[in-house]
Amino acid sequence: MAYHSGYGAHGATSKPAGSKHRVRTAPDAPALFDDTSGGYSSQPGGYAASGADVAFSVNHLLGDPMANVAMAYGSSIASQGKDMVHKELHRFVSMSKLKYFFAVDTAYVAKKLGLLVFPYTHQNWEPQYSRDVPLPPRQDLNAPDLYIPAMAFITYVLLAGMALGIQQRFSPEVLGLCASTALVWVVMEVLALLLGLYLATVHSELSTFHLLAYSGYKYVGMILSVLTGLLFGSDGYYVALAWTSCALMYFTVRSLRTAALGPDSVGAPAPRQRLQLYLTLGAAAFQPLIIYWLTSHLVR
Asked: pTM of the prediction?
């Protein structure tokens, strides 16, 4: 302790006297930055003046009659554009009709899936009406819907990606090609049915949404075929393909004949009735071909 104290005293006495002046800051040294804590209200040309100028400019702009007219005209153009977009949208797609095809519940989905897999015991295929208005799908099992085709399409794409991944053949390009091919085939089928109905002069309540629903039910059979093929190999795939194809053909014939073509064919000439029957059978026979074409490459 005595050594440290002596060392400190020795250091203090040996320090030059001028070093105290070198470490002390001069009182008149200018600061690096101005003190801005007090704001700029007291300085000329500060932000307060600029804010007042901006506020005056905004008030002047809002008070200008030409600016008000321009703003009103712009709002009118935006409103007209919005109305035009809604009008064009409703021209091609009726939202009220589209909501009808998605009016489903859990009970309807379960019963409809069972009907698609095993339709042979179903007796009444007539669509139900209430005051000449068809009942929604959740109240009528025979009513077509778009919920099951949409969900089945997404499930098919995911299942195709899993199948390709198991076989070490997955790539985004292949999966995109698989999804787009499945969608294009359904669109082509709907267009072919619309053309066939036009050529057969069938006047029914079938719309594009109806045909899209009936064409989209094949995705359920495609899912079952691919899933069975992944679990039991190619033999299980062909068994499931045969079962789902027969069930879908029977479902398509009964649904189209009863719900769409049946009322129009009553009292029609014999050639027209035969043409309607051929159209229905052709649409039904086309289902197994599409199912095989879209699923055979996923099972090896």
From this structure: 0.68
